[in-house]
Task: structure prediction
Amino acid sequence: NAGVTQTPKFRILKIGQSMTLQCAQDMNHNYMYWYRQDPGMGLKLIYYSVGAGITDKGEVPNGYNVSRSTTEDFPLRLELAAPSQTSVYFCASSSLSARKPYEQYFGPGTRLTVT
Amino acid sequence: KNEVEQSPQNLTAQEGEFITINCSYSVGISALHWLQQHPGGGIVSLFMLSSGKKKHGRLIATINIQEKHSSLHITASHPRDSAVYICAVRRGADGLTFGKGTHLIIQP
Result:
């Protein structure tokens, strides 16, 4: 199993540009999450999904959109990039039916800089 | 006030020392998670607990639900334990709420 994969690893965007951060998991987990990590701050939840077709806002959803058309994929869309979105983005997944229910598996992260 | 508070924020110790990292939270939870973030940035789950104590190798995690407090202990610390240790709480399926992390450096 590859676990949770994220692409790209690094990206530099200009203000106002758009991009999609990709996240995929091959563990058949129904729960997926997007977090952002800013220096000196704890990770914060952006959006989450409890299954295909179901998404909901987390603590800091403004400026982002998500979709969950399949169990495996959970892309995060930035429509009009702003410097405040400079951060490291982590995707994670978990499952109620896994050997360790709700244990979160994290992707390697995407480091995004908006200038 | 953050829902999850960790202390200390930074900790430098000598190899072999016994390490304690503390976590306090202010909300009702389903479980508490301890995570490790390596210098390269990757995050791995160490423990998930809702009561009592868990042990894995040299790592021990305890939780006191009544006092809303958890501790992570490292026995016989080693330089490879140097990392950021993160406490997070879970209330349901809607993700985790994280502390700011404890930067641990173990010197040889």
About this structure: The radius of gyration of chain A is 13 Å.
